[in-house]
């Protein structure tokens, strides 16, 4: 092989390699994550909850290229704990408690589907206890010394995919927040109704460990694209 032909082949090979390198770098996705390791602990003695993540937020940043096809796949994962205690007696024949963990995700301050601004339920429990036994027992009515107590505690892990399409180029701030909401039979879930005393007729929740992962992906219309309904 002549030196001139070898030189031409070497230049062509180098040109192909240089052209392929940016294409490979551009096609690969970016990735970011935050992991919080604090544990929500369920007591095997009385069902009470302790520990968990201090605060109710995780966040991370990711940089994306300027492309209308760039989307973000966001996956917040949480271990959640729920506590409900319903107690009935001669003066109260029905008791109900509800506890929930609701997660919200935003990119640059905007909610991410399927979150429309009200969050996504990661865990929720309704517990109700009732009995007509007391009205039929003369001794219980006269002494007011009869009661029934039901306690239920649960710990489980949850993960859910949130999708932010066409985010555009630049630096993006992703925030995951969660709320502990409870209801003491009023019909309204509020944070104020969640108890830390784990007493009769109370509800509570906790979370941890938790993680947020975000991956930059390409969404091409010919492969199905992204459909949000």
How many runs of DSSP E, i.e. beta strands? 12
In angstroms, what is the radius of gyration?
27 Å
What is the SS-derived class?
Answer: mainly beta
Report the sheet with the most strands, covering strand number, pairing sense and barrel closure: 5 strands, antiparallel
Number of domains: 1
pLDDT < 50 runs, ≥5 residues: 3-27
Helix content: 10-25%
Shape verdict? elongated
**Which strand-content bin applies to the residues?**
over 45%
> How far apart, in Å, are the first and last alpha carbons?
63 Å
Q: How many distinct helices?
A: 2
Task: Explain what the structure shows.
With about 230 residues, the chain is mostly beta strands. It has one domain. Helix content is about 15%, strand content about 50%. The chain has helices spanning about 5-25, 140-145; strands at about 30-35, 40, 50, 55-65, 70-90, 95-105, 110, 120-130, 145-160, 160-165, 170-185, 200-220. The strands form 3 sheets. Strands 1, 5, 9, 10 and 12 form a 5-stranded antiparallel sheet that branches. Strands 4, 6, 7, 8 and 11 form a 5-stranded antiparallel sheet that branches. Strands 2-3 form a two-stranded antiparallel sheet. β6 and β7 form a beta hairpin. The longest helix has 25 residues, at about 5-25. It is elongated and about 75 Å long. Mean pLDDT is about 85; it is low at about 5-25.
